[in-house]
Specification:
alpha/beta; eight-stranded mixed β-sheet; 43% helix; 15% strand
């Protein structure tokens, strides 16, 4: 008879918990899908705002590909340099890691149809968007306002305001403030990343959830999957690391034939 501390019993218990979480996640995502409304992708110019290299492709890769097919203007802004994904790696200097992540972003977005000149890196510190010094915060805000005023998008897409990651939530607050300062009529949509990976953290009664919309990306799904797989630094271990930066199975949550967005209400 195995004791509670026996390694085999512990592994079986961990496996059971993992299966329970997967089933719960599947059930919650299905519930969210069922209560969402189908949204048609138009040729309206769009600005995609991502906290880190890969968020734009995970959350909006299908949307980007569909808009580019229609000839819509699409620009992508990536706020941080992505350095925190392998902060203590013994053989990967910070500057090399930043260059690697930016190269992956450029390659992924090229697959989706976005040329290099429409990709903007703001190079803010990864894991530091929520705590930027006031002058640095203001400088980023000015950059976003200038981009809004020169590009004049009709739609902006940004990470969900309650996405349980400080950079994701701070990025939402920054673009919301920029839209207010730009004083332009813009439809703002939020895309979930970590709350799609752990949907039990998603409050289905929270502000904005009632306006959940989905788009079908079946026609460009392979294109999106190809773009996601460019981000090898995130889903494959970089030796001597034994684990990847992202949890096992994370990217597959975003390889479904649809994408979900929450329509943000205009500020009063």
């Amino acid at each position: 008879m195995f004791t509670a501390q026996h390694p085999l019993r512990q592994r079986l218990h961990a496996f059971k918990q993992q299966r329970q979480r997967q089933f719960r996640a599947f059930r919650l995502i299905r519930q969210l899908y069922r209560q969402s409304q189908l949204k048609q992708v138009t040729a309206a110019p769009a600005l995609i705002v991502a906290p880190h290299p890969d968020d734009e492709t995970l959350g909006c890769g299908g949307l980007i590909a569909l808009k580019c097919q229609q000839g819509a203007g699409v620009k992508v802004v990536i706020l941080t340099d992505g350095r925190a994904s392998h902060a203590n790696h013994p053989h990967l200097p910070t500057e090399q890691l930043i260059a690697m992540r930016q190269k992956e972003a450029a390659q992924a977005l090229a697959i989706l149809g976005v040329p290099p000149e429409d990709l903007h890196f703001l190079n803010q510190p990864d894991q530091g968007v929520a705590t930027l010094p006031s002058e640095q915060h203001q400088a980023v805000l000015v950059q976003l306002v200038n981009l809004l005023q020169t590009f004049r998008p009709q739609e902006v897409y940004v990470t969900y305001r309650r996405d349980v990651h400080p950079d994701h939530e701070a990025t939402y607050r920054l673009i919301r403030a920029a839209i207010t300062q730009a004083q332009q009529p813009i439809d703002l949509y939020e895309y979930p990343i970590y709350t799609l990976w752990r949907p039990w953290l998603l409050d289905l009664k929270a502000e904005g959830i009632g306006t959940c919309q989905r788009i079908s990306i079946r026609s460009v799904l392979r294109q999106k999957q190809q773009a996601i797989r460019v981000y090898r630094s995130q889903y494959q271990p970089i030796p001597p690391d034994q684990k990847a930066a992202l949890p096992t199975g994370f990217i597959y949550r975003f390889m479904r034939p649809y994408e979900l967005f929450f329509k943000a209400e205009p500020e009063s």
